[in-house]
Design a protein that fits this description.
The complex is a heterodimer of chains A (359) and B (293). Chain A has eight helices and 18 strands. Chain A has helices spanning 64-72, 114-124, 129-142, 158-170, 188-205, 216-222, 240-245, 250-255, and strands at residues 20-31, 38-49, 53-57, 79-84, 87-88, 99-102, 176-180, 208-213, 225-230, 233-238, 260-263, 273-276, 282-285, 295-304, 309-315, 320-325, 337-341, 348-350. In chain A, the strands form four sheets. Chain A has a six-stranded mixed sheet with strand order 6-7-8-3-9-10, sandwiched between helices. In chain A, strands 13-17-14-15-16 form a five-stranded antiparallel sheet, with no helix packed on it. In chain A, helix 2 (114-124) packs across helix 3 (129-142), helix 2 runs parallel beside helix 4 (158-170) and helix 3 (129-142) packs across helix 4 (158-170). The longest helix of chain B is centred in the N-terminal third of the chain and has 32 residues, at 3-34. Classes of the chains: A alpha+beta (359), B mainly alpha (293).
Chain lengths: 359, 293
Amino acid sequence: MTHPAAAIDDRRSPAAQPRTLVEVAGVTKAFGSGPGSVVALAAVSLSIFENEFFTLLGPSGCGKTTLLRLIAGFEHPSAGVIRLDGRDLTELPPHRRPVNTVFQSYALFPHMSVAENVAFGLERLGKPRAEITARVRHVLALVKLEAMADRRPAQLSGGQQQRVALARALAPAPRLLLLDEPLSALDQKLRREMQGELKRLQRETGFTFVLVTHDQEEALAMSDRIAVMSAGRVLQIGGPAEIYDRPATRFVADFIGEANLLPGGLVGRPGGTVAIRPERVQLVRAGEAGTADGLPGTVTTLTFLGSDVLYEVTLAGGTAIKARLRDAAPGVEAGSAVVARWAKEAERPVAEDTAGPRP
Amino acid sequence: MSGTARIRTLPLLAPALGVVLVFMVAPMLIAGAYSFLTAGAYGGVRLPVTGEAYVRFLFDRDLDDSLIFDDTYLVIFGRSILLAAATTVLAVLIGLPVAWFMACREKRTRDLLVLAITIPFWTNLLIRTYCWVLILRDQGLVNAALIGTGVTSEPITFLYSNEAILLGLVYSFLPFMVLPIYATLERLDPRLVEAAHDLYAGRWAAFRYVVWPLAKAGVAAGTILVFVPALGAFLAPDLLGGGRKLMIGSLIHLQFTSSRNWPFGAAASMILMAFVLVALVIAARRRAGQVAP
């Protein structure tokens, strides 16, 4: 895994006074009523800034898709308000919201050609014919599908269908583009390609993108800011580097990348949990110089990961810890007695997660 | 396919071919043959071979044996087509919303609703049509309710009219419209409707541009399943039309029973069948033209 912090330089500096586009204020969504009801979102509040690539990240069932559907207008909040440009959207039906969605299954109209699909939103808005034609051509060029304009969706590959869905949602120039796990149906290679493509499109068009995903690598690679969600709550909002380097809770530390979650007492911080990224851990053979300040243990397994080597070490107290090293530590193999150590600032105290609203 | 392969598959096809031969081709050949024979005095047919039955469909024979144009049967034929067409239109207007309502329910509710649509088939159509007589007649349920609530003092005559026949036809054939439309709508991805709404389509536009084009195949199937049997129906016109407003089905029925004119009944059947065949071919041609622009 490439270190996500390496890509931070070209991101917008947080000092550049962002303008709030979407404001989600105390939004709760419960499905069903009475004792059998399920709370999908519990009083979620967050702001999405103009022109940013914002990601809702979390495991399935965390409420991220529900929040997206609430913003699109497909669901109605049980409580709370969603504002766009300061205007309350709550009572506005989906077709009156200047918001377009790229659906997970693409939901392309099978009886229309690619161009007709892309023109659909513009036609409903009653734009003049000439403007529609020009806009469709422009958007199809943006996703590099000019040659496919007359094809039917069924005649396209998955990746091409994905681009049509994107073009269709971009064509009406919405204030906000919602992407519901748009890459989940693509294979690994195409996915990487489309990640770059999406990022490029967002930068070129200047639209505000809201992406829903369960793939933390995808979120780290593409987002300006990420909201990590679990069990209907937002646990932390921040830039990718911030979320990765300074996870606020145990869940965030564990869900984003890999983390060693150690009892605080082990490292002289009694009472809490401390997260340490495996790549920050160093291994030294026991008995070598400078082993005084580390924790002794035994290597249990050693996995070659291509660019890295992953060591699993059982510490003296029985706690397991992972170390991810760029180069194999000389002379260290399974069964070796080692000392694990790290810089003090690699230790991140994390809060315990409060219980979610689900039964 | 080579000649030997064709010979080898023949035994496998034989049962199906046998059924088609015995139950479809043979009756049609018999009916076709009877239509060119002469009526027996007590029913049945006898020689000589003649085209008289077909002539009778359009002409009456005067005392001096000259032919006079007679539109009696054409009117019946026209009324049949009009009633069947009206039945089909009403069935679409009622069936489409019903099917849409069903398709929008949860899986378990949907299965129950499909079962509910098929419940009428558990009872004979004759009995169900008689029930409509009981509901509609002057002393029937509807009039009792109207008089009881003081809407009217005298019973209103509903029976023995084209409208009563139409009601009976729509009632009889509505399930054949609902089920095929439901089958296409059930397969329709609800996300497509959401996508339409998302792209600024209101309810009507979403229906017009997304639901309707995708439901059309079901409507076409339903139209055939309703129009064709409604055209040949004889129970509803007999019982609810009182035999006064004949439809082609009841006309044919009469020829084989009280009128004892089998050749004419057979000729009317052949004419009806030819009309349906031509209509179906035209419809199929038009649809094929739409699919491949």
